[in-house]
Amino acid sequence: MIMGFLRDRRSWILFVLLFMAAADLLLLLDPGIEVELSSLLYVNALLLISFTLFCFWRYYKETAYLRELAQLAESTQTDWIEALPETRFKRDETINELLTEVASTYSQQLHTIRQNSIVQGDYTAAWVHEAKAPLTAMKLIIDSNRDHPAMRKIEAEWLRVHLLIDQQLYISRLPTLEQDYTLEEAELKELVLAEVRELRSWCLEKNLAVETDGLHAQVVTDKKWSRFIFRQILSNAVKYSQEGGVITIAARQEHSGHLILSVKDEGPGIAPHDLPRIFDKGFTGSTGRIHNAATGLGLYLAKMVADRIGVTLHATSSPSQGTLLEMAFPLENEFDHIRK
Predict the structure, then answer these.
(1) What is the pLDDT of residue 290?
(2) Strand 312-317's sheet: what is its strand order?
(3) What is the pTM of this model?
(4) What torsion, rounded to 10 degrees, do the Cα atoms 309, 314, 319, 321 define?
(5) Which residues pair with 248 in a beta bridge?
(6) Are 258 and 313 in contact (CB under 8 A)?
């Protein structure tokens, strides 16, 4: 900061040095003034020392406001307007007024954006709930006409619409996830089988078998949001599985104590260059483009929710070898850290 201070005042420093040089030249060239060179050097040294001390004094006085402002910028205070440093010069007052005005403007804009977001979220949630009513009626009609040969195909298409609408409902709830987060002990079997039943018609349409292993373990988590994560993973496995394939769902305990829930499919797999990006928003990869069925949202949403509730997702895959996706649930003593 001191170099910047001196650079901003280089014209003043140059003026003082030139003034001293001119005065010295006048004293040396004027025949009417007799001055010893040693005395002239003494006076110049005294003036330079005084001027240097003066510059340091002005530096600490004039930059005190800027130093406090820099400390405030590094802090995490939310009410930073109230914590603005005390002003010492008119320039500092102008900066404070400008910062206050800018903060007020942005605060109003942010409030407007939040209000619009709330309205949009409420509208989306209302629309989803309204759309669920005819879907429920359609499901009743499907259940009462299962003997009809076309019902299995209709039910599979109904399921796709149901999953998309349900996904949209969860998206609208994401901003308030922390308020909707409830820890409870749950059996993995209960969590998994509920989602398998949801996707049953889709599995039947593709003649897929679902095998499970080790699902009697207990885990402490938010059941609703964990089911949402698992649904995105399982629906991806069903989507990319070949006709007559097998999806394996298993659980195991790591040496660290973490419980791992894995979903393995026999699909086309993921190319090595695509694997690091499968959780990116909108990324479909080469497999998704070939099948023309990917939206690039399912795993992105799963990762977003997982990060916020402390679940770790990991994927391994290779072309033609299927894909393995794992959910690692946090230990009970990690939840205090997750809530922060």
Answers:
(1) 52
(2) 209-213, 246-253, 259-264, 323-329, 312-317
(3) 0.67
(4) -100
(5) 211, 264
(6) no
